[in-house]
């Protein structure tokens, strides 16, 4: 995953920046904690969803949960990526004690949308130009005939699971979600609110509640 140049601490440098005075078990001092965002209780999710990004995001969520119970804001702008990595972040948002607000910016697609709907409906915010993309899982299958069958079955199971998560999060009937996600399904900000994905469109930080 390419990290924007404006990002405080590129992942390529994180492994070289272990703090010499780090206390054992002190998650706040982990090399993966984004200390520039720590005091503001913000976690950034940008770019492709990968296992590396999921590790960093979950460490930050745990560190902030350890630091206090004030709300955490997760800002998402992502084209999607690895579904299971999205699952990891989705589940951790629900697992930790503090309330988590999500803010969509730019585009929230595929596995990015999976992460977005982890927040309670009342805690889902978007900026005016945010777009969403929902679709079923995709991927190539190959190998022996028996392996192809196993992979195809797993993709179908994943599709059904993701559709149920979307239906539960939006209040849409499962049949409608299945039809909508059979192909790429794009939604503007107002359409996402109408669909039940998002709840609040805001233009400034002061509108986060």
Strand content: 15-25%
Q: How many helical stretches? A: 8
| Backbone CA Rg | 18 Å
Instruction: Bin the helical content.
Output: 40-55%
Taken in chain order, the helices and strands follow as: HHEHEHEHEEHHEHE
- Number of domains in the coordinates? 2
Count the E strands: 7
Could you tell me how far the N terminus lies from the C terminus, measured between alpha carbons in angstroms?
32 Å
CATH architecture of the largest domain: Alpha-Beta Complex
What is CATH's topology name of the largest domain?
Answer: 2-enoyl-CoA Hydratase, Chain A, domain 1
Name the CATH homologous superfamily of the largest domain: 2-enoyl-CoA Hydratase, Chain A, domain 1
Structural class: alpha/beta
Specify the CATH class of the largest domain. Alpha Beta
Biggest sheet statistics: 7 strands, mixed
Unreliable runs: 1-24
Assembly type of the shown chains? single chain
- Provide the residue-averaged pLDDT: 86
Tell the overall outline: globular
